[in-house]
Design the sequence.
């Protein structure tokens, strides 16, 4: 098991290097000149040349990449252009807030998806099955953006039971309870799509296991439905891990809309602002962290899979 | 369930199984004495598997079943589901076709064998149960029972897996083992070993065996009573020695002729022309084999032949049975 993990981690290194290379190149390809956007149209050629030299933009791009990657490995992602703070610092705090939101949303999606999936697999032709498959389709296809707005209108504007945005109350905020109250609407908004996806995938995984020869053989040995359900759930776990991991990774990278609507100070909002102000170091740092977390989540999923399935760990 | 000595262990009476319009099993009756062996022989789609699974009341989804099946005098179709679950595994051991997919891939062998004992309350004490698992694995000829019990299914060979599945089938000392093509997924050398194992277990435990196969060789090797099925019906039955040397039904003769034998040259293997009719198109008022039969006469397409005695302990459902001692495959 430990050997398995070590090997996965070693194999992740080239992936991360490749990912960071793409991130670096993408930032290079973004239209717009960071120097022009920093200094404005009236800058003198001399000032421009000084800034280019200061940012290292006059060196060939492979050198720039290696320097950037080397610094990134030491936790130094450079300084943000529009804010006098280190990129690493901004990214760390906003990534933490996003992770919080993604975990809450992921938990809702996991619990809801498993319940819907189990009901759907157990009663495919009866009311629960039909109802759950309908619900998961609605959850999957409802646009995050409108769902979030709808939730705000209903629960914050009309019913006035939940706050419309932010992470804490600005006046007498703070504390876990306050955070949780602020988290409900954004977490539900981000959870919907993954919930639908998990429900459908888990349902089909369970259905497949329940129809497999070994389940039939267990029935022929007189083993009861409760034990069979336990074996089936065990066998459907790897599929559940895989899909949940993918959805969690998607949540971390894809909550821009929801964070914008609920002014949640996460990585999505940070990246959104960085892109609109052409803050290249911040874009690079933010995307890199999201990409690396994607890789890490996948390693976690593989590890969980190996824990469950003896055929995978070797 | 107790029964007088002369009661057959298993009695299938007028069993019919339909899946919608498909008539998979038609009016099949057979009996099996305690400790006896019956081999059900037929090609795929002949209804032999559905017959065997009907004894466990697991014929498949959307099946509608008529007829009666009694185990030691007890009507299995009258039992509620809970009582039937006790019969499965405890009174009847089942060996499915493919050992490679009939074990939970994520659980250790020992746990899975133990589960059968646990579910049927065969051994209450946990430690005793573990010991019994090792005994069972040794009984089916697994060389290192303790280590095998700790292994996962993917760590064993196909033959070893089939032995484990057989160990699970005999775990609760059932009176009947039903084996559905138990050797089909195995190498030829392993096939013989597994058949030997069945014979040994029967001798040691006094268990009856109902074995379903498409392989004439398996039937010959077990030297049991043979029931030949075609298109959902029994077409011939009798002792293997007689049926497989001098078949009375042209279909049985065709099966034997289609069997590869050493010394046979290319082109000499006699296939039965045509194919079996789809289960939706078999009519009741004709012999289902008539369209493929070289001996068929107009009468064969007008009446369905009943099983009639053709010799000592033998019966065939044919209007024009092959006379005894006639050349095989003529």
Sequence:
């Amino acid at each position: 098991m430990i050997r398995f993990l070590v090997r996965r981690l070693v194999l992740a290194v080239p992936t991360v290097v490749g990912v960071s290379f793409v991130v670096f190149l993408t930032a290079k390809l973004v239209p717009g000149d960071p120097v022009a956007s920093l200094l404005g149209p009236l800058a003198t050629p001399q000032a421009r040349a000084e800034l280019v030299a200061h940012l290292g933009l006059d060196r060939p791009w492979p050198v720039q990449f290696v320097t950037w990657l080397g610094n990134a490995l030491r936790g130094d992602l450079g300084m943000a252009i529009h804010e006098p703070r280190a990129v690493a610092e901004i990214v760390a705090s906003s990534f933490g807030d996003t992770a919080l939101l993604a975990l809450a949303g992921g938990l809702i999606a996991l619990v809801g998806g498993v319940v819907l999936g189990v009901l759907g697999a157990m009663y495919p032709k009866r009311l629960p099955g039909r109802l759950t498959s309908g619900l998961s389709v609605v959850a999957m296809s409802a646009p995050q953006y409108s769902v979030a707005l709808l939730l705000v209108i209903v629960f914050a504007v009309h019913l006035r039971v939940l706050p419309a945005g932010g992470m804490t109350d600005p006046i007498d905020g703070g504390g876990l309870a306050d955070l949780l109250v602020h988290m409900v609407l954004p977490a539900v908004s981000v959870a919907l799509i993954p919930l639908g996806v998990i429900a459908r995938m888990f349902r089909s995984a369970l259905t497949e296991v329940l129809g497999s020869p070994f389940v039939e053989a267990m029935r022929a040995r007189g083993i009861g439905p409760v034990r069979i359900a336990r074996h089936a759930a065990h066998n459907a776990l790897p599929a559940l891990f895989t899909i949940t991991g993918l959805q969690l990774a998607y949540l971390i990278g894809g909550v821009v809309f929801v964070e914008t609507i609920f002014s949640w100070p996460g990585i999505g909002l940070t990246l959104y602002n960085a892109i609109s102000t052409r803050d290249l170091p911040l874009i690079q740092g933010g995307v890199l962290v999201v990409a690396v977390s994607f890789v890490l989540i996948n390693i976690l999923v593989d590890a969980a899979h190996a824990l469950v399935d003896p055929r995978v760990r070797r | 369930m107790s029964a007088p000595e002369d009661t057959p262990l298993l009695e299938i009476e007028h069993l019919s199984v339909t899946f919608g319009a498909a008539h998979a099993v038609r009016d099949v009756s057979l009996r099996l004495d305690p400790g006896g062996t019956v081999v059900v022989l037929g090609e795929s789609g002949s209804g032999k598997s559905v017959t065997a699974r009907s004894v466990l009341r697991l014929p498949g989804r959307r099946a509608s079943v008529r007829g009666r099946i009694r185990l030691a005098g007890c009507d299995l179709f009258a039992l509620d589901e809970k009582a039937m679950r006790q019969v499965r595994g405890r009174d009847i051991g089942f060996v499915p076709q493919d050992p490679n997919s009939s074990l939970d891939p994520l659980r250790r062998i020992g746990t899975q064998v133990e589960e059968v004992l646990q579910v049927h309350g065969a051994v209450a004490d946990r430690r005793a149960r573990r010991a019994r698992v090792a005994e069972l694995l040794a009984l089916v000829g697994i060389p290192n029972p303790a280590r095998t019990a700790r292994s996962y299914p993917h760590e064993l060979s196909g033959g070893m897996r089939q032995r484990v599945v057989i160990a699970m089938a005999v775990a609760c000392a059932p009176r009947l083992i039903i084996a559905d093509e138990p050797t089909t997924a195995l190498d030829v050398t392993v096939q013989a070993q597994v058949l030997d194992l069945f014979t040994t277990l029967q001798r040691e435990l006094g268990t009856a065996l109902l074995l379903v196969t498409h392989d004439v060789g398996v039937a010959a090797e077990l030297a049991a009573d043979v029931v030949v099925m075609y298109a959902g019906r029994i077409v011939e039955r009798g002792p293997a020695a007689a049926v497989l040397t001098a078949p009375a039904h042209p279909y049985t003769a065709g099966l034997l002729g289609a069997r590869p034998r050493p010394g046979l040259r290319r082109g000499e293997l006699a296939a039965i022309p045509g194919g079996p009719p789809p289960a939706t198109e078999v009519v009741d008022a004709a012999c289902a084999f008539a369209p493929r039969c070289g001996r068929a006469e107009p009468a064969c397409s007008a009446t369905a032949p009943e099983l009639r005695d053709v010799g000592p302990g033998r019966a065939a459902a044919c209007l024009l049975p092959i006379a005894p001692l006639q050349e095989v495959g003529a």
Summary: Residues 1-74 of chain A form one domain. The radius of gyration of chain A is 24 Å. Chain A touches chain B through 20 residues (CB under 8 Å).
